[in-house]
Specification:
181 residues, alpha/beta, 6-stranded parallel sheet, binds zinc ion
């Protein structure tokens, strides 16, 4: 991708195995195969690498914000140990019924990152695993690549059928290959 300005990543289903009962502690955080190697591949690119994640388990009272923050610190630490880099995590802690501006499919998290890092949206790419990630990227003007490694993987192609063409690949490593091509 020419003039790449930033890489945005969803967390669950892209970096780690998605759980229908939420990742509530570090023991439940399981890196997906090849995710660490893929993150190492992009670490030397001169662009911010930022995670955009909905964590409604906080708003639902299932896990505390400090516990999720601790999971993210540990994730960033392990990624760094493996030679990779995650510069910052942008997180929505709200429940769907709170109607916040930051819960994907709304673009709030992406807009926040674009503003904070002064990024041209059209030169950024969001790697996500769900239709709502695609919708958030569209709403923010970012490019997107979808991966099948999340719980929605089997349905993604059908969900995207009536949408503008978007790259749909197996996992983060394949998405990174597309970006580096
Ligand atoms: Zn929110």
């Amino acid at each position: 991708m020419n003039n790449l300005a930033a890489i945005f990543l969803d967390r669950d289903g892209v970096i780690n195995r998605e759980r229908s009962d939420y990742v509530k502690n570090w023991r439940e955080f399981q890196f997906l195969p090849n995710a660490l190697a893929a993150l190492r591949q992009i670490a030397t690119l001169p662009v911010p690498i930022l995670v955009m994640t909905n964590q409604s388990a906080i708003g639902r009272g299932i896990v505390s914000r400090s516990a999720v923050d601790a999971i993210h610190r540990q994730m960033q630490h392990e990624v760094a140990e493996a030679g990779g880099r995650i510069d910052q995590v942008f997180m929505c802690p709200h429940r769907p019924d709170e109607n916040c501006a930051c819960r994907k499919p709304r673009p709030g998290l992406l807009l926040q990152a674009l503003h904070q890092y002064d990024l041209p949206a059209a030169h950024t790419v969001f790697i996500g695993d769900s239709f709502t990630d695609f919708q958030a990227a569209q709403a923010a003007g970012c490019g997107s690549i979808l991966v099948r490694s999340g719980l929605q993987g089997p349905q993604l192609a059908a969900l995207l059928a009536d949408q503008p063409p978007v790259d749909l690949v197996d996992d983060l490593a394949a998405a990174i290959s597309l970006i580096l091509r």
